[in-house]
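Fig. S4 source data, part A: sequence.
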Amino acid sequence: MASQPHTILPRAKKYRYKWHSAIFLAIMFAIAMFAFTASIVSSRAASTPLLDDATMSAAREVASTKLPERVPLAQAEGLQLMLPVYGREVTAIGFHPSADDDAVPLDPIGQQVNGSVIASSLGQVFPQDGTKYVVMSGSGDADIKAMDVGAPAGTNVFAPVDGVVTGIKAYQEEGQCPDIEINIQPQSQPRLTVALSHLDYPQVSLGQPVRTGTTRIGSVRAMDGCLNQSLRQYTYDNGNHLQMQVDLVK
């Protein structure tokens, strides 16, 4: 009598079982990895939120801010007025009279050069032999009581002296041009006040201490739209500038 053959599972069924097992394991692994990644992303989002536009804008502004070089431009009653803007932004430096009876005479520091154009270059405005400046037409030495520091509108302006902010005033220049003036009482000369005008976007408040070349007080205002600026005779642009003068405290 012939023996019965042994029962053997077909190879096809055996391989089909392994194939389904591999797919199942791959799917489970993918699900586990997805869950793990999602948990990491979620935890990071909770601890480090995305920066909003205002924060990013402020960061860019801080990164691009350049402080002025410590360069004296003039002196009055023993007080030195230092460069209030970054040197390479300067288009020209000009001295002229002031209509304010309380303004004290300024003594320019540097070399007078009344040329037609002074290029925006640190090497040309601030050479090794001293600052170059112009005296406006018709101004005698006794009449020099104000100083224009030419720079493009929007240029950051910093305190020219150490002191305290004693005044912030909005007014109309020549009755037609909106303007802002900031007054600083110098730490070394409390009987004087430094008046800065043609400013925009004030960055200081009353009573705030300021430091020379470090504390930002605002930016250069665009005055060329409503004011005929004399400094334009000595620059390549429309003559936008910061004006500074020293007054006696009443």
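Fig. S4 source data, part B ends here. The chain has three helices and 15 strands.
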